Amino acid sequence: MKAVCLKAPFTVCIEEVPIPERKPGEALLKILSASLCGSDVNAYRGGGKKFSYPSVIGHEVVAEVAGIDDGRPFKKGDRVLINPYVYCGKCYPCSLGHTNCCESLQVLGCGAAKGAMSEFFVHPDHLLVPLPDSIDLLTAPLAEPLAIALHGLHQAGIGQSMPTKIEYAVIIGAGSIGLLAAMACRHFGVAPILIDILDSRLSYAASLGFTYTINSASRDAVQAISEITNGVMAKAVLEMSGATAAIQSTLSYASYCGTIAYTGWPSSMTTLDTSLITLKELTLKGARTATSELAEAVTLIEEHKIDVSPILTRTVTLEEIPAALKALSDHPEEYLKITALF
Ligand SMILES: [Zn+2]
Ligand SMILES: [Zn+2]
What's the CA gap between 107 and 122, in Å, rounded? Predict the structure, then answer.
């Protein structure tokens, strides 16, 4: 079978490898489509923290069950979204049900665990999310980044039930995850305020109907948020860029008693003016990967509550993935998501 192999930084190719063998408790999956992610680009550039070259990339993947034990919730031919977060089930965070924070979490194609961008893949059969046939294969893999965005929202108190009314959410980073978060905010009745330093990203967000966009490189974002929110600032702040300056700015973007969720991974240590946390009595929360949000994302897409198709920039074939990955690395500003149809 063919697999998208990252041999070394900046060296990606299609390789012929044996079809993996399924063990009890695992499903053999025929991959149908997969999207490229920023972490695939990171690994391509040699920046993947624990990526062990050579390996296969890919964690935003949908598949058809090609082999599975009897008596499981899935059968041959069923469509599934792969849950790419493989947890141990035994450590302290797993015992609390926070499997997304597993002490030995393995993310497909991001560390030691092999990614799923290959014609076939084996995966634990409890880490599969049912995928209705009505969801088209081009947008189906985007349920995974939507789940990441949803987890950020939930950590900031935004969701189906909101004990505290949240009128505005500042979203820092208007890339794929930021736009998906903005779509989800809109669905939950919260007005998103998108912040980025690229005008092209912000004008694309505006074209999707997101009226509050701020370029923090050319405008005083605190002033702009204050004007939009009548001086209150944002009850929820979603940090989705990982940039040090952006992380620091979250404390001044938040309202009194606001909540900030940090999804972006900073590359180095960030200092914060903690006096603002005390002064405003802020709640700071991490937001890492996702759990039940994968199924939630599939349902929101299936029920046409969130249309993720605007973040799909380009469609390619399996053979075209290496060139697409290079293009994404060379010109990240030109793309949101690239999906490969297998
Ligand atoms: Zn991803
Ligand atoms: Zn664990």
Answer: 14
Q: What is the mean pLDDT of residues 318-324?
A: 97
Nearest partner of 233 among 252, 261, 217, judged by Cα: 252
As a whole number of angstroms, the distance between CA 316 and CA 34 comes to: 10
CA of 280 to the centre of ligand 1 (A): 33
The percent of residues in the chain predicted with pLDDT above 90, rounded, is: 92
Q: What's the token pair of residue 1? A: 């079978």
| Cα–Cα distance for residue pair 53/56, rounded to 1 Å | 8
CA of 98 to the centre of ligand 2 (A): 8
CB distance 321 to 299 below 8 Å: no
Question: What domains, with CATH codes, occur in the chain?
Answer: 2-139+308-341 (3.90.180.10), 147-286 (3.40.50.720)
What's the CA gap between 107 and 87, in Å, rounded?
9
Candidates 28, 22, 34, 108; CA nearest to 65 is: 28
- Helix and strand numbers (H, E) in the chain are 10, 18
Q: What is the pTM of this model?
A: 0.96
Give the Å distance between the CA of 145 and the centre of ligand 1.
6
Closest CA to 58 of 74, 86, 39, 72: 39
Q: How confident is the model over 227-279, as pLDDT tens digits? A: 999 999 999 999 999 999 999 999 999 999 999 999 999 988 999 999 999 99
CA 186 – CA 122 distance, rounded (Å): 37
The set of residues, in sequence order, having a beta carbon less than 8 Å from that of 225 and lying 6+ positions away, is: 168, 170, 193, 214, 233, 234, 253
Residue 224 C-alpha to ligand 1 middle, in angstroms?
Answer: 31
